Amino acid sequence: MSDVYRLDKARVRASFDRAALTYDAAAVLQAEVRTRMFSRLDLVKIAPQAILDAGCGTGHASIALANRFHKSHIISLDIAMGMLKQATTGQHWFKRISGLTRQSLLCADIEDLPVRSSSTGLVWSNLVLQWCNDLDLVFQEAHRVLRPEGLIMFSTFGPDTLKELRLAANADPDHVHVSRFIDMHDIGDALVRAGFTAPVLDVERFVLTYDDVMGVMRDLKAIGAHNATDGRNRGLQGRGFLKKLTENYEQFRQEGKLPATFEVVYGHAWKPEPKFQSEDGSIPITVHKKK
Question: Can you give the three-state secondary structure of 11-26, one letter per residue?
Fold first, then answer.
């Protein structure tokens, strides 16, 4: 059976290409989450020689990572060429990154990384994983490119994200209007399946408020968050749907404002040192006998 929530990556890429010029002005939540991720990074002692910023967008995290880890090689990767161009021109990239830091730009999908195995010490990803179809594959790729004792640190959206819009969109029950988001516990399980150890995950909820439902839609469009699911309506939505959507969303109005909930899942985990195996595949165990 086909998965109606499967993402059309070509549409995802095109949406973020178009949004590159408007992204920074609308990405208030993304900036706040990035700040909170860095506060979590303060608690970790690492000195990575290379860092992969997976889904770098317009480059803010890459710049901050470069300024924190002056001797690291920063690999800034995004699926949308428009975002990479905005990172290099709009951010005055090469003027703001420390002169000691080397940079590489890659236009690619984080489900298929064009990065050498065991070459990075940190994989960083801020609010990107929700744009992937196969979370297991994403974590397998991150595990592959990390050195032993390397760290993956990420944020993504959980199931309560845009719950108001999801319920209001029942005005058109035959189509998918909001992407599927993965539960924190399932994310933790995927990390373990990929071979990571000591996973740590936690959740925060943010509520943005708007005067009307079109304000919600405009902000989503400005950051490139278009509906890219296979189950979307491929035609134009009529006035009837928009009218019913607006009416349904009104039930959530509080103190004169419409809420838009975002559940943010934070996580980090380590790639362990490989266990030594003998030629027959067994793992030797040393037994210490008491004298």
Answer: HHHHHHHHHCCCHHHH
**39 inside domain:** yes
- DSSP label of 257: B
- Could you list the beta-strand ranges (E) of 35-135: 50-54, 73-78, 102-107, 120-126
Dihedral, CA of residue 95, residue 97, residue 101 and residue 106, to nearest 10: -100
Could you report the average pLDDT of every consecutive run of 10 residues in the chain (291 residues)? 89 97 96 98 95 97 93 96 88 52 91 98 98 98 98 98 96 91 97 98 98 96 94 78 94 97 98 72 45 41
> Which has the closest alpha carbon to 190: 249, 253, 265, 117?
265
Looking at the domain assignment, is residue 286 inside a domain? no
Specify the CATH number for the domain of residue 203: 3.40.50.150
Q: Is residue 72 part of a domain?
A: yes
